[in-house]
Amino acid sequence: MRTSQMLIPTLRDDPGEAETVSHRLMLRAGMIRKVAAGVYTYLPLGLRVLRKVEGIVREEMNRAGAQELLMPIASPAELWRETGRWDFYGKELFRFKDRHERDFCLGPTHEEVITDLIRREVRSYRQLPLNCYQIQTKFRDEIRPRFGLMRGREFIMKDAYSFDKDEEGAKLSYQKMYDAYQRIFARCGLTFRAVEADTGLIGGSSSHEFMVLAETGEETIVYADGGTYAANVERAEVLPPAEASTEPLRPLRKVATPGARTVAEVCAFLNVSPQQLVKTLLYKTPKEIVAVLIRGDHEANEVKLKKLLGVTDLELADPETVAKTTGAPVGFAGPIGLKNVRILADQSVAVMRNLVAGGNEANHHYVDANKDRDFAGVQVADLRNALVGDVSPRGDGRLKIAKGIEVGHVFMLGTKYSKAMGSAFLDPQGQERLAVMGCYGIGVSRTAAAAIEQNHDAKGIIWPVPIAPFHVHLLPLSQSDAVQKQAKILYDQLGQAGIEVLWDDRDERAGVKFNDADLIGAPLHLVIGEKGLAQGQVELKARRTGTVTKLPPAEVPVTVKTRLSDKDPATGS
RNA sequence: CGGGGCGUAGCGCAGCCCGGUAGCGCGCCUGCUUUGGGAGCAGGAUGUCGGAGGUUCAAAUCCUCUCGCCCCGACCA
Do residues A375 and A349 make contact, with C-beta atoms less than 8 angstroms apart? Predict the structure, then answer.
């Protein structure tokens, strides 16, 4: 393609609206433009990258035995009412009415639609297993869209749904997808990690998220430094403490702690460490108010808490509720004397002795409090976030923490949807059985953004070869006949060799072309200059390393092919 | 939804406090020169100052309402 014939509106300055690297660079490189919050137009360059990612996804899905279909973006409320998700999904579901006042939504995911199809069309075990996927625009009315394509309200997703006749088959389908995902993200040139994950709104029995490792990631993951365990921190299990305190119990005292509300303030005032302190968090669920005891230096894990309580709605209680429940303002809640409230404690709290806790009275705390002696009826569970240095729950070392971008998520669904919607088939015995399902998502547009987060420098994007919008950026530096002719020859030769070339045929200065090329980030830059050409040489530059190779034009096609092959470190593929 | 901030030329911003009829840099157009890392000179075009209402002789500037966007948090395959 010739630059002069493509819409590639690069920007010199960083747009004010973008903070994140990928968002900024995609805008500056002329790949995307915003239409509304979280809604973007993909310009030709951006679309080419999406198509590359889609191509890899499609190949690997097909290879794994899945078949492509395409479902509608709009779906009727009735289907969503069958599974209860019309109410359950909440505000994130983009809803609208047609002219007959019938409720519809824009699909955020398609379990209902696919299950509706399969229950109609699949009646025999002979038709199973089945795995159908689509690559499609999805809509989620995110509370806060951000970071460009990273968290849009409209985005492109590959979603696959497997149907099996039994649990065993479903596990196999799941494993196939898991393996396919490994290949997909590896082929995209990403550094990533599969981690155990929570199943959230989709539901099901177990799941793994595929995380692209990046500082800017919105997810926190933990992994064992000595083995294979890795999990989203939402999900990561924490082992019970290895040893309990053996300190002799001291008598309980109530002391004045004027104005000391936060852990830091109380610790400073009483001259104790956060490890000796217990914070009492009051949570509100639709059913009840619960008090949660967490050690001062730990963080409560609301996902674990929700699971334990069997609720999906959970929030910290407002100050009035706290006051009404504890008889004290926020900052002085404690387990001692707390009435009419279920009390939960994290495992680490259960082994503490002589702890400090709120006094349920303004400006007072208890010192040397002890479970069972001073407060009882406490349910102990794993309720905190895992921390750096915790022992891995699989015993393979200690935990470390990293940030990740969730680009894929595989779920074992079981019969949640087939049961709700009656997707059944007849087994060889003529018995009716429910399909066992799995679902598997990949954020295609997010993957493109994640690739930039992981592959860039101060000058711009550095595309991994397999998803680069172009392989070679051809930069003739002069409008002279000799240079232009040589450019045309190389452009044609490379094109015939199946290499995608972006030819900067603009009458711009060298600096402008170099800077745009660095910004756009094709893996190889082919520079044709007047002087070099007079000596029979052109230059091939690796975007990632900046390494320049001078070579005669005749050698370009072969050299480029070699460089683009995935073994060459200079292109970083 | 809570907190913070921003809407002025295609992009980045100043002007607003203290009202007097809009400016800077980059980009864009024309010409000449230049031509290996965002050229120089000369000339030129471009704004419902997010929108509506109000105050005033006069509003980008003050007041009210409203819409949009960004950041932090809560939330989320």
Answer: no
pLDDT of residue A443: 96
A312 CA to B7 C1' in angstroms comes to 38
| pTM, 2 dp | 0.93
Residue A36 CA distance to nucleotide B66 C1' (Å): 18
Q: Dihedral through CA A109, CA A113, CA A116, CA A118, nearest 10? A: -80
φ and ψ of A551, to 5 deg = -155, 160
* Dist. CA A455–CA A111, nearest whole Å: 34
- Dig out the tokens for A196 from the structure: 């155990």
d(Cα A108, Cα A91) in Å, to the nearest integer?
Answer: 11
- Which phi and psi (to 5°) does residue A407 adopt? -105, -15
**Does nucleic acid strand B have an atom less than 7 angstroms from the CB of A73?**
no
Q: pLDDT tens-digit profile of A49-70?
A: 999 999 999 999 999 999 999 9
Report d(CA A208, CA A219) in Å as an integer.
13
Q: Using one digit for the tens of pLDDT, what is the confidence trace for A508-551?
A: 999 999 999 999 999 999 999 999 999 999 999 999 999 999 99
| Residue-averaged pLDDT of chain A | 92
Report the 10 Å Cβ neighbour count for A482: 13
Residues 318-357 of A with CB under 7 A from strand B: none
What are residue A260's phi and psi, to 5 degrees? -90, 105
Alpha-helix runs per DSSP H in A430-548: 444-454, 481-496, 510-520, 530-534
Q: Structure tokens of A54?
A: 């889609």
Q: How many CA atoms lie within 13 A of A571 on its CB side?
A: 25
Residue–nucleotide distance: A512 CA to B14 C1' (Å):
27
Q: Using the CA of A510, which nucleotide's C1' is the nearest one?
A: B36
C-alpha–C-alpha distance, residues A493 and A144, integer Å: 48
Indicate the residue type of A486.
Q
pLDDT < 50 stretches in chain A: 572-573
Reduce the DSSP state of residue A177 to 3 states and report it.
helix
Please list, residue by residue across A282-304, b when 16 or more beta carbons sit within 10 angstroms of its beta carbon and e when fewer do.
bbbbeeebbbbbbbbbbebbbbb
Q: Is residue A144's beta carbon less than 7 angstroms from any atom in nucleic acid strand B?
A: yes
A529 touches strand B (CB under 7 A): yes
State whether the beta carbon of A202 lies below 7 angstroms from any atom of strand B.
Answer: yes
Window A22-41, strand B contacts by Cβ < 7 Å: 23, 34, 36-38
**Contact, A7 CB vs strand B, < 7 Å:** no
A283 touches strand B (CB under 7 A): no
Q: Which residue has the tokens 């689509």?
A: A134
Per-residue pLDDT tens over the stretch A470-484:
999 999 999 999 999
ipTM of the complex: 0.92
Interatomic CA distance for residues A33 and A31, integer angstroms:
7
Measure A272 CA to B5 C1' (Å). Answer: 39
The helix/strand/coil state of A287 is coil
